[in-house]
Write a structure and sequence with these properties.
Its main location: nucleus. With 127 residues, the protein is mostly helical. It contains two helices and two strands, in the order E-E-H-H. It has a domain of 75 residues. The longest helix has 55 residues.
Length: 127
């Protein structure tokens, strides 16, 4: 064999055993190997879901929203009840303090009469 004989080119192989192709030899690929423009794909319609599936999805979404609304209403109701209990407790405390103050100024029996009279008038107002 002489030095002028053409030897067949041996393909280069990377670490994984895949053949390495020189980007300069491939048509449409830059010499640097970088693609500057994205490969364009033909436009396709989006995945079409059936009417039944869409109806089912809407129904599940609506049920989720309904459940969330119920939970929010329940939380709001509990919060309102707690606030009402606090208001009632404060009002009772204020009334008790007021009667204690009256006891220091007046006779105890007179304070008890006033308390009963105020309860009666309060009950009449609520009717």
């Amino acid at each position: 064999m002489s030095s002028t004989d053409a030897q067949p080119e041996v393909p280069r192989v990377d670490k994984d055993g895949q053949a390495v192709i020189n980007p300069a030899n491939v048509k449409g690929v830059r010499v640097s190997g970088k693609q500057w423009k994205m490969q364009k794909q033909p436009t396709r319609k989006s995945s079409h879901t059936s009417w039944d599936q869409r109806q089912k999805d809407r129904q599940t979404l609506e049920s989720i929203k309904t459940r969330e609304r119920e939970l929010k209403e329940e939380q709001e109701r509990e919060r309102q009840e707690q606030a009402e209990r606090i208001r009632a407790r404060r009002a009772a405390k204020e009334e008790k303090e007021r009667y204690e103050l009256l006891k220091t100024k007046m006779h105890a029996k007179r304070v008890e009469r006033l308390r009963r009279r105020e309860k009666r008038s309060k009950l009449l107002k609520e009717r």
